[in-house]
Every structure is written in structure tokens, then in C-alpha cells.
Amino acid sequence: MSALIQSTPITARTAPVAARKSHSQKTLVSKSVASKTIRLSSFEGFSKAAAPVSFSARASTRRQTAASRSTMSVTAGFKVAVLGAAGGIGQPLSMLMKMNPLVSELALYDIANTPGVAADLGHLNTPSKVTGYVGDDELEAALTGCALVIIPAGVPRKPGMTRDDLFAINAGIVKTLCEGVAKYCPDAIVNIISNPVNSTVPIAAEVFKAAGTFDPAKVMGVTTLDVVRSDAFVAELKGLDMKDVDVPVIGGHAGITILPLLSQTTPSVEFSDEEVEALTVRIQNAGTEVVEAKAGAGSATLSMAYAAARMGESCLRGLNGEADIYECSFVASSVTDLPYFSTKCKLGPNGVEEVMGMGEITEYEAGWLEKLKPELTGSIEKGIKFAAGE
Ligand SMILES: NC(=O)c1ccc[n+]([C@@H]2O[C@H](COP(=O)([O-])OP(=O)(O)OC[C@H]3O[C@@H](n4cnc5c(N)ncnc54)[C@H](O)[C@@H]3O)[C@@H](O)[C@H]2O)c1
Fold it and tell me: Taking every annotated instance into account, which residue ranges of this chain make up the domain Lactate/malate dehydrogenase N-terminal (predicted)?
């Protein structure tokens, strides 16, 4: 299926600064179908383009991004599956993906309740087709033909739990679902949300290796919520416009393995040592902040759905051939001596085109980097051993 959607040019007032974010001002696009114009609310506006490697050449990247955006068009519609679509994250995420003009078909898969979610979302007057699938027997139909598979299936944390406490249940769920991906849509990009991401990404990779379908460019742990939170907290603290702030977050996705590089914040911001310490610790514990506030009713769902929709859209924009799409993601990496690590990744028609370096980091950030490595190594090894049946 193919569609042509021309983006509305952004206003000159907002273009120069926000051009870093490849589409944040584009809230509406129009699509002409059978001589009828349908206005679509677009959830584009998420992916940020940052300068490669050192993140220091921001100005030139901004110019490239502005140029590419003004001519952006959607030339393809993609089939996307959400596995765990009836859950706390799955439902709002599915809604956001239903609103995305790059999606032509949205397959909602879960072990229960997807027919209802699909019927509900099917009444949205956005062009994509929605289908609901329940249980193992329907996994094949859900996955066949997918370009992108997003996995939020599994149990969430309760107060007092770490993400690693979820391993016993979620590791098996991710393994089984990835075996399905290897069989039914081996070329799809896989966005893994299920925690502990630091272990579930290596599990997915091992499943694909065993099936002979592993492509490191297509297995991505979703750490976007850490970036979204960092951007929000910094903007709030410094009184900046939310849409202008970009903080790269590297490492992994659990506690101290989450390392925001506040020194590389865009726009350039001065922080006191106390502010850096407080922000770093808050960002590392932000998930727990939500878990405690929900008091047993789960972990972040709405902010996670927003973050996953941004990540999913960035992947689709890359597949669609757009230039300058970057997201931080936990991927197979040679940036450090760890086999998986999150840094900014350049996305393209084949998934991750380039895993960027971490750029110049401060002594403070380097201290955290050394602290996080043993924990992250342990989580990665735990995932690899689980996949090997050890
Ligand atoms: N990466 C992140 O930043 C991040 C943030 C928040 C939560 N999470 C993780 O996302 C996961 C989901 O969280 P939630 O709040 O949506 O949980 P939830 O319990 O509300 O939803 C999970 C859904 O997964 C489904 N499910 C369970 N087993 C399945 C299987 N084998 N196949 C398909 N679906 C299955 C359940 O039926 C349920 O609908 C958790 O692991 C949570 O820790 C990740």
C-alpha cells in the first residue's frame, strides 16, 4: 500500500530552532483520498536529529534536517504489530500508532482482549486498518508482513521491585514472541519495551541468532522514555521550551545504568554540580517515581506509550527514507567494551544505519559510566544465558 502525504511547511517563526527535531511543529498533514481531503492528526514530531558522534556539529545538522523536512513525503504505508497490545502501555501506544500516517495496517496481538481494543480503535477515522489477534495460534497472522514489531508484552513493576525482578516472567514472553518474529517477519525492525530491557534485548538477539535471522540493525531496546523524561525535567528546571530540549541518554535502561549526558544538552545549558547530581539521580529513578505514585497499579504506561510511539515513528521515518533521524536506543554496539549499549543511533531504510559514539563526556559522567558497566554486563550476560537455556 502506498500513500503520498505532503507535509505542511513549518512556519518561519519556529523553524530554525526546532528544526533539530525533525517534525515537532507538524501537527497536521493532509491526505487526498478519492478526491476527498482527510485531515490527520499526526504524532510525528518526535524524532530528534542530533549531530553525529561528538554531537558538536549541531548547526549543520539543523540545516540538513530543516531541508529534508520541508520536502518530507510519505511514500509507503507499513504494517506494524504491537505485541501486548491490550496492556497499560499497549492500548495507548496502539492508539498513537493508529494515528500515524506512516502506518497502513496495525496488528494488535495479546493473550487476551485484543478484539475489543481493535474494535474500539477501528472506529478512529484515520486510514490504517486495525486487526486484533489473540493467542499463539494467531501470532503468525499478526506478524506476517510486518515492517515494525513493538513489544510491550509482560508484567510491569510494583513498588519495591527492580526491573530485574521481572526477568523470571518477561524473559520467557520475549523469547517466545521473538521466535515468532524470526519465523513470520524475520526482516522486521523489533522495538523491545518489555523489561528488563538490559536483558530482553540480548535474549531477542540470541533467539534471532539461533534462527539465523539476526540483524543487529533491527533489534532495538526502547530507552526513549529516559530521553523524554530528561528533556522534560531539564526544560522544567531551566524554564526552556519543552520542544527545544534534547538530552542524550546512554548506557542501559535500569537504575544506575541510565546515564543522561547533561553536558551535551541542546540547547547548551549551564548546570551547577548540585543540579547535575539531582537531575542525574532523578532521571535514573524516574520510573520508580511513577511506580510508587501508582502504588501497585503498575509502572509508566502513558508516558511510555508516548515515548514508544516516538521511537516507532522514527523507525518508520527511517524505513521511509527520510534523512537525519536519530534516536537513543539499546542496541548491539562497539562504542564500549559491552556488547550492547545505548547511544544515539542513526535510523534509515534498513534500521540502525550507524551507532553513534557517546561524544565528549565529563569526568562526572565518566564516573557513572564506570559504575554502570558491571551491572549492565551482568544483565546482558543473564539474558544471553537464559536464551541458551542455562
Ligand atoms: N522500556 C521502558 O522504558 C518501559 C517503561 C515502562 C514499562 N515497561 C515494561 O513494559 C511492559 C508492559 O508494561 P504494562 O504496564 O503495559 O503492563 P500490563 O500488564 O498492563 O500489560 C502487559 C500486556 O502484556 C500482555 N501479555 C502477557 N503475556 C503475553 C504474551 N505471551 N504475548 C502477548 N502479550 C502478552 C498482557 O496480557 C497485557 O495485556 C513491562 O515489562 C514493563 O516493565 C518498559
Answer: 79-221
